Structure formats: structure tokens, C-alpha cells
Amino acid sequence: MNGVFITIEGVEGCGKTTQLRYLSRHLTEMGHPVETTREPGGTPVAEAVRALLLDPAHTAMTPTTELLLYEAARAQHVSERIRPALEAGRIVLCDRFVDSTTAYQGGGRGMTWETLNRLHAIATEGLWPDLTILLDVAAEEGLQRVQGARSRDRIEGEPLAFHERVRQGFLRIASEEPERVRVVEGHLPVERVRERVTALVEEFLRSHEF
Ligand code: T5A
After folding, report:
1. How far apart are CA 22 and CA 17, in angstroms?
2. What are the b/e assignments for 107-146, b being 16+ CB within 10 Å?
3. Domain hosting residue 98, numbered range
4. Protein residue with least CA distance to atom 6, ligand 1
5. What is the pLDDT along the chain (210 residues), one digit of tens a residue?
6. How many domains does the chain have?
7. Residue 51 CB neighbours (<10 A)
8. SS (H, E, C) 54-77
9. Which parts of the chain are beta strand (E)?
């Protein structure tokens, strides 16, 4: 594939959406063809699954159902949107991807890494991010940032201990795949985070002659 697949990850309120917006504008200004998308979601089917997943009314949803729905949304998203954009030579910027499932359903819910990796392989048909930016902030700080901005969705409503396990899950992934997953301190002021994210992405594109 000719394109580049970049994902942004982290706990609730870590600043992904803010940084993705800056990055998309910056890369577009540099003349790159950019496709911005998110998970769960990014296509009509996957957005419908997102609504189901995040609806706080679904208190009876089991961890296995939740996991399969995230992977189902991903299968649609990869096939309908991400893979075609990469084949067309675009830079795909995705707000969350497989690492969120590993951190939330693995770290948070306790599903085994082996189960998760098997399902990732089915949903993505082997497609893996080229570069992942992990915005690392304390779970409590991230939750405080999003508190009051809107009503809490089903996952945000989980207790703090859940979100702390999610953060540890992300850090474990980064320690296992340091080449792909680059950690940026998300507690820094927005502008400082933006500079670091931009520098990492520019360095990656340069080294891959994109
Ligand atoms: N999920 C997702 C799973 O459980 N498994 C999966 O496989 C996947 C894909 C998705 C939910 O689903 C879960 C994870 C999530 O719970 P989402 O919309 O991606 O939902 O989730 P959120 O992380 O909640 O997204 P948010 O948009 O709320 O948070 P962001 O994108 O991290 O943060 P952002 O940029 O919107 O910023 C939040 C606030 O913080 C401020 C911003 O101005 C904003 O007010 N801010 C900063 N403040 C201080 N310093 C900084 N550096 C700041 N950066 C941003």
C-alpha cells in the first residue's frame, strides 16, 4: 500500500481529537492528501455500532459482546474506508484503533492479550498502524477534562480504577512496540503537545520518504 496509517491513542480526555485536528490541518497545508477518521465509527455501519456501544442505557452489555462490537465496527471501517484510502496513497489519521481495544477490553475488562490479537487479525485482515502516537495523561486528569463537557457515555462512566488499568494497558503496548508507538506527555500545554506530535510525524514521514 502506498499510503501511511497513523493512529492517535490514549485515555479519555487525553487530547487526541484536539491534536488530530491540528495534525490534519498541518499535513494538508504541507500538500499531503489526508483522510481523518475515528473508531469506533468512520462509516455509516460503524457509526451505528458506535451509538450502540456508547449508549449508557446498555448496562447489560457483556464484555464479550462489547469486544465483538468494537471489532465488528473495525472490520467495516478497515474494509470500506481505511484500506481504500491507503491504497489511494493517502495519509490516514485515525482517532483510536486496535490499541484502544487492547487497552480498554484487555487492560480495563481483563480479556486476554491472545484473544484480542486473534480478533484484531480477523477484523483488520492484518492491517497495522505504521505509527501510533500515545498521548499519556493520568486517568483522573483526562476524566476531569471531559467532565461537564457533555453527559458521560457508557465507557466514561466506568470507575477511576478501570481507567487507570486502561492507561497501564496503553503503556504496556508502548513498551512492547517502542518503534511503532511513540509516547507524548499529554499533560503538557496543548501547544507543547502539538509541537511534539508534529515533530514525530514529520520525522516519520521524512524517514519513510513520504
Ligand atoms: N473504546 C474505543 C473502547 O473501549 N475500545 C475500542 O476498541 C475503542 C476504539 C470512544 C470510547 O470507546 C472506548 C474508548 C472511549 O471510551 P471517544 O470519543 O474516542 O469514544 O473517546 P474519548 O477519549 O472520550 O474522546 P474525547 O473526544 O472525549 O477525548 P479526547 O479526544 O482525548 O480529548 P479532546 O481533544 O476532545 O480534549 C478533551 C478536553 O481537554 C482539552 C480540550 O480542549 C477539551 O476540552 N485539552 C486539554 N486541556 C489541557 N491540556 C491539554 N494538553 C489538552 N488537550 C486537550
Report:
1. 9
2. bbbebeeeebeebbeebbeebebbbbbbbbbbbeebbebe
3. 4-207
4. 101
5. 799 999 999 999 999 999 999 999 999 999 999 999 999 999 999 999 999 999 999 999 999 999 999 999 999 999 999 999 999 999 999 999 999 999 999 999 999 999 999 999 999 999 999 999 999 999 999 999 998 767 788 898 899 999 999 999 999 999 999 999 999 999 999 999 999 999 999 999 999 888
6. 1
7. 11
8. HCCCCCCCCHHHHHHHHHHHHHHH
9. 4-9, 34-38, 91-95, 131-136, 181-185
For residue 117, give every residue at least 6 positions away whose Cβ sits within 8 Å of its Cβ, in sequence order, or none.
Answer: none
Residue 77 C-alpha to ligand 1 middle, in angstroms? 19
CA 14 – ligand 1 centroid, Å: 6
Largest CA distance in the chain: 49
- Overall pTM > 0.90: yes
Check if 74 has its Cβ closer than 6 Å to any atom of ligand 1. no
> Residue 177 sits in a domain of what CATH number?
3.40.50.300
User: Which residue is it, cell 486473534?
Assistant: 118
Minimal-distance CA residue to ligand 1 atom 40: 145
115 grid coordinates: 484473544
Contact 82, 7 (CB under 8 A): no
In contact, 5 and 129? CB cutoff 8 Å: yes
